[in-house]
Specification:
Transferase(Phosphotransferase), domain 1, mainly alpha, single chain
Length: 112
């Protein structure tokens, strides 16, 4: 529920239908990035109805911290755009300087 795009709620109510694949995935990515960088969900409430209202309301997510870099803030805001057709694609996101300049993290094998 916390990562569900607003258009999915509309579809459940028998209103507008359509293709929801990639734009919905990008919304979920925005919610995950928000949660990773803030350590709290982007959308919260006392119950499922409260959360749905926040998700379906433009700007309903919690404030994006000003402590984040401009690139990180922009990433979250663009991914959580209400209009599905205006959300960036995965290819666009991968070209953002914020991610390209992040550097690589070396991985070590974990031996159990």
């Amino acid at each position: 529920m916390l990562y569900k795009a607003p258009e999915l709620f509309v579809s459940q109510r028998g209103e507008a239908g359509g293709y929801f694949g990639k734009p919905v995935d990008m919304w979920a990515l925005g919610a995950v990035v928000y949660e990773c960088l803030h350590n709290v969900p982007a959308f919260f409430g006392d119950n499922k109805d409260d959360i749905e209202i926040r998700i379906r309301t433009p700007g309903g997510h919690s404030r994006v911290s000003k402590a984040l870099s401009t690139g990180a803030r922009g990433c979250i805001i663009k991914l959580l755009t209400m209009e599905a057709v205006r959300r960036p694609t995965a290819d666009e996101v991968l070209r953002w300087p914020w991610l390209r300049n992040a550097g690589r993290v070396e991985q070590e094998a974990v031996v159990a």
